[in-house]
Amino acid sequence: MENYVCQTCGYEYLPEVGDLDSDIPPGTPFGELPDDWVCPVCGVMKEDFEPVE
Q: How does pLDDT run across 4-23, given as a tens digit for each residue?
């Protein structure tokens, strides 16, 4: 599973951690996040994330 980083604020989504504040359990790949999921730090939409190289 790939990590993804917010291009606006630098927050890194880690699939093995998930996003518990948004009820996203650990082990959730980025591609399976809901379409309306937003960055928990700055609030931008998921399309503003890029895979970590």
A: 999 999 999 999 999 999 99
